[in-house]
Design goal:
Chain A: Pfam families: DUF3006. The complex is a heterodimer of chains A (64) and B (306). By secondary structure, chain A is an alpha+beta fold. In chain A, β1 and β2 form a beta hairpin. The mean pLDDT of chain A is 97. Chain A contains 1 helix and 4 strands; from the N terminus they run ββββα. Helices cover 28% and strands 33% of the residues of chain A. Chain A has one domain. The radius of gyration of chain A is 17 Å and the shape is elongated. Chain B has one domain: Metallo-beta-lactamase, Chain A. In chain B, the strands form 2 sheets. Chain B has an 8-stranded mixed β-sheet, with helices on one face. In chain B, a hairpin with a 4-residue loop joins β14 and β15. In chain B, α4 runs parallel beside α5. Chain B is globular and about 50 Å long. The C terminus of chain B is likely disordered. The chains are: A alpha+beta (64), B alpha/beta (306). Chains A and B meet through β1 and β2 of A and α5 of B.
Chain lengths: 64, 306
């Protein structure tokens, strides 16, 4: 999904969704972004599998 | 239905007492019921429509000419439309006749419903600053303008026109062609009816205020629409002292997440002795003038001062 930054207010970036609704994102989610920037939001399955493997290994080390 | 109280020139103490009495207007039975149509008397009315954390201002002259400045968020179309239908003359097709429509700048909280307004009204002249936004909201507005066969007048400081024989509108900003932030492209309109002036500043921030001061414009106004929902990035002390308004209106959403209006701005207005009205407390606010005095009407009988 791509969202467009309409404006910044206080701690928030207000983004326009594809259905034209406005949602507030924490500014920390879009470091360095400016008004008019297009932000892509997507799920990353490969990164998820990598995290699962890392956590699984760590759990194997600390569980009895 | 409403107590109308002219703003008297009294010592501060008496003014405060008058304010406390003056703001005890009777609330309407139904919450959210719009204010009735402006009085047919020879008065200019400026209605600050309660569109939450957004702006929409309707100016109506005693001769029935109308100007709309900003059109709230996307979900505010119906409330704005209600005011247009109730207080603006219609053309033969039943569409409200708006001599002038101004989008102060292309943020969604100012042009959210403007595409729908363009599609459903008879507009004489549409003014926008020459500033682009990448949103679909702005694209929709451009498409609506195209479909209505309108051309946009690029708004900038120095443009002036008459709404009727007694009502003059002058743009005091934007003064530059390029800004980092869209807010500073805001069209600042000074509306003068006989001896009374309204300064309507959109979201103009300190940078634009400084430019207006440098240009030496006559900023003095009886009523100030406080810039950028009362945020601390607008309404600088020097700017405010030059405007020296008797009354100020802050268009702001109840319990908004941005801490608007800021304490700094409220304190500045208080120190200036300005009477403050807020849409989050009073709902829709209408200020009328006969050319020498001001008359106030609010939708909700909540505190109009702060």
């Amino acid at each position: 999904m791509k969202v467009i930054i309409d404006r910044f207010e206080g701690e928030y970036a207000l983004v326009e969704l594809e259905n034209r609704e406005i949602a507030a994102l924490s500014r920390q989610l879009v470091p360095g972004a400016k008004e008019g920037d297009v932000i892509e939001i997507r799920i990353d399955p490969a990164a998820r599998r990598k995290r699962e493997a890392e956590i699984d290994q760590l759990m194997g080390e600390v569980f009895e | 239905m409403f107590r109308r109280k002219p703003l008297s020139v009294l010592p501060v103490l008496l003014a405060v007492i008058a304010l406390i009495i003056g703001i005890q207007v009777k609330p309407l039975q139904k919450t959210g019921a719009p204010l009735p149509s402006p009085s047919p008397r020879a008065r200019l009315s400026v209605t600050f429509i309660d569109v939450g954390q957004a702006d929409s201002i309707l100016v109506r002259t005693p001769t029935g000419h109308a100007m709309l400045i900003d059109a709230g968020n996307r979900e505010d179309f119906e409330v704005i439309e209600r005011y247009l239908t109730a207080s603006v003359p219609s053309d033969s097709a039943g569409r409200p006749k708006l001599d002038v429509v101004i989008g102060t700048h292309p943020h969604e909280d100012h042009i959210g419903s403007m595409a729908q307004i363009v599609a459903s009204s008879a507009i004489g002249r549409l003014c926008l600053p020459k500033a682009a936004a990448n949103t679909r909201t702005f694209e929709d507005l451009l498409l609506a303008v195209k479909a209505a066969n309108l051309k946009v007048t690029p708004a900038k400081a120095g443009i002036a026109f008459a709404l009727d024989a007694d009502t003059r509108v002058e743009f005091l900003a934007p003064n530059s062609a390029h800004y980092e932030e869209l807010n500073n492209y805001s069209v600042v309109a000074k509306v003068t009816y006989k001896k009374i002036s309204f300064l309507l500043t959109g979201d103009a921030e300190s940078l634009s205020e400084e430019e207006m001061l440098e240009r030496g414009y006559d900023l003095r106004a009886d009523v100030l629409k406080v810039g950028h929902h009362g945020s601390s990035s607008s309404t600088g002390a020097h700017f405010l002292s030059q405007v020296a308004p008797k009354a100020a209106v802050i268009s702001v959403g109840k319990g908004n997440s941005y801490r608007h209006p800021s304490r700094t701005t409220l304190k500045r207005l208080k120190d200036q002795g300005t009477r403050v009205y807020r849409t989050d407390r009073s709902g829709t606010i209408r200020i009328e003038t006969d050319g020498t005095r001001l008359f106030y009407q609010v939708e909700k009988g909540a505190s109009g001062g702060s």
